[in-house]
Amino acid sequence: MTNSIAEIGGAKTILAVGTNTTAAHPIIALQMKNAVRNGAKLVVINPKEVDLCQHAHLFLQNRPGTDIPLLMAMARVIIEEGLYDAAFVEQRCEGYAEFEQSLYDFSLTEVAELSGVAEEKIVAAARLYAKNTPSSILYCMGITQHVHGTRNVLAIANLAMLTGNIGKPSSGVNPLRGQNNVQGACDMGSLPDVFPGYQKVADMTARLKFEQAWNVSLNPVPGLTHTEIFDGLYSGRIRSLYLIGENPVLSEANASHAIEAMKRCEFMVVQDIFLSETAELADVVLPAASFAEKDGTFTNTERRVQRVRKAISSEEEIKPDWWITAELARRLGGKGFDYTVPAEIFEEMAPLVPSYSGISYKRLDQGGIQWPCPDEKHGGTLFLHKDRFATASGRGRFTALNSPETAEKVDDEFPLVLTTDRSLFHFHGTMTRRVFGLNVLSKAEKLIMHPDDAALYHIEDGEKVRVVSRRAAVEVEVRISADCKPGIVSMSFHFSETPTNMLTCGEVDPIAKTPTTKVCAVRIEKIKSVEVH
Amino acid sequence: MTIATITVNGLELTVDSELTILQASMKKGIYIPHLCHHNELEPVGACRLCLVEVDGNWKTLACKTKVYDGMQVKTETDEINAIRKVALELLIADHDTDCLACAQNTNCALQRVADHIGVDTARLARMKPREKVLPVDTSNPFFDFNPNRCVLCGICVRTCDEIVNVNAIDFAYRGLGTKVAGFGDKPRLESNCVSCGECLVRCPVGALTEKNYQRPVSYVKTVCSYCGCGCGLMLGVRNNRIVTAKGEPGNKASDGKLCVKGRFGFKYVNSPERLRHPLIKRESGFVAVSWDEALDYVAEKLADSKGESFAAIASAKCTNEDNYVLQKFTRSVMQTNNIDHCARL
Known about the structure:
Oligomer: heterodimer
Radius of gyration of chain B: 28 Å
Number of strands of chain A: 21
Structural class of chain B: alpha+beta
CATH class of the domain at 3-126 in chain B: Alpha Beta
Strand order of the largest sheet of chain A: 16-20-17-19-18-21
Helix content of chain A: 25-40%
Radius of gyration of chain A: 24 Å
Largest interface: A-B, 148 and 109 residues
Distance between the termini of chain B: 48 Å
CATH architecture of the largest domain in chain A: 3-Layer(aba) Sandwich
Number of strands of chain B: 16
CATH class of the largest domain in chain A: Alpha Beta
Largest sheet of chain B: 5 strands, mixed
Shape of chain A: globular
Number of helices of chain B: 9
CATH topology of the domain at 3-126 in chain B: Ubiquitin-like (UB roll)
């Protein structure tokens, strides 16, 4: 997030795009609802009538995958009505002319037709966002999990820069990050192209810095991304895999491909707290400590680094992940893995990562600190891009965009669009499926289907059907609800009994390599035979 | 902050003029009996226990009256004590008083009030006993609602409205039979309750209690393991098990709040399904082995695939320290940058 969670309460307009916030980020949703209570306007853009819509002043229910046209049409309204922040664009941004030119491909009438959102609503949303400021955009995987996910994000950034809603309190471009420490895992360099602190592996200065720190010579070639690793396993290019705390059998789009890839792997080590569906495929399984059994730090979606503290001792044969990896490193001849406590790891890392340099365990005992925090005197950063953007020129770069193609198209054989969603009562599944009460609150998968579609396919509420995509089939109970528009159905992916991601499309965004799980063409087949009288 | 000087029971206090009499007095350590007040909620003045005398001539509710400069407050007079005593007796007469069996025992606001005002059992005995015992709603898998222990303070109702904005509950059957209920007085599980438990942690008595509650011997401050909100979590520990959890007051990300997963979802940590030993797959299936055997075996196998034929998938569930060590291992020992995690999923 460019801004902080607590700042959401101060926004006058909140634009929530592709986020089912009350289910996936309930505590951030409290801030949004609180803002609305205090007079803020909430605009929701989502293909599904999510719970948040109850609090929204405007709900734009667009067809899955039409976010770019919608956001571009809003930008065009803002420019045509003179509502943009000319001074901000002039002083802080670049690339405006090309961006403005690209807007003329998006006529309001055509976008309304394409997205299924009425013209008046697009105009009203644009006016609110531009005029009733500060405005904050919150988005989640409804934006990123598309073949054009990166361009979706750029469309959001365009809108924020155009109206000067960035670099100020209670504004910004705010991705709500999924996992407890997905921000931290990125910051720490668990990515193929960067060392800790986003320092490029291909950059010689950065490489020299880490070669000196670690006293080794390092490989300058960026590695493979998550989806490419699975493709590499599939093709035999990758022969051994060390996988920690992840369950691709359930979470990977087009999961059967991932499963086959892991089966082909010559040697696979899985380190987890449970024998997950993925761990069952491994050659060696190593039992790891849970968050309650170890010390360390997590970095949340607003860049806040906070201390994780050991609450209970794990059973003797369960070890913290850092200990296990360091033991392996030592046995393979690695130098500099003689850590005794996590604090030593943090002390080694912080000086190497400029945005963490001022953070220490001692300071974190007084409360979390938001990076960038370059030195011990620095109090942390509430919001980013205040005076300059993180580009070479320091200016925010507009991006000209065109209407994207979706990877999956409906046809006569697969006439419905399946989009994935989440339940409040589950996370991915490995943890929550093992908490009895959460499974009382949410027992099994439900396919959400509009009454018109149910009538069309002669399906009753609670009936079990077969959902078939171009890749697989899954059997699931139907819940008839007007939350989805006709032609759109939705499922979550928490239940291994009904693995939704066997259905989804593995096509990836060309830049971020994020697979598209939000648009998947399916058909519904009846299982119950039609009674003959 | 503007300052007001007030006098409470003859003691001169300098306080923030934005505070109510109750807040200002409590802040200075002067107890005024109360049940329905909660600092995070709008005051409603339902319990009538915080009645005080102001400037020697008028009585008001301390929870609803802001202080002003020169205010003279008496928290007790004969008349106020008499009013409070009756208000308390009416509450107790309608209350399940089996305190030893209650999860809130020694932590209960009604006990505190009774302790302060005093209970005359002879007077209580003259009152009409409760006519019927109401059924306990045990439908929610994480907490129970026992209306027999409810004092109708409305803190749960206001929490669900003002804090959570869900409005799953309200007062039903207003009058002698007033009760907190969901729509149609159906079991809580069938209401639109999101099971966040924010009402549970604010209940001043034993009406809302966690199922199988065990009082922890200590709390450990940490961070929730579910989503990216990063809520401050206090894990209640007893006998090396997590027995309960609550939000960390004042945490900058979560301001003390938790959702259903954060508050109740820690139970996977104690799950009997946890992996307990390193496992190596042999022909017969997984076999438990020692750490030395497992690590030696993995190291021997990985030694053959240093370079581009190795890949690591890191975990966004793990700590920064875990991730730092794994990427360092991948880059410096395995000599490849083939490391990624679920960030792009």
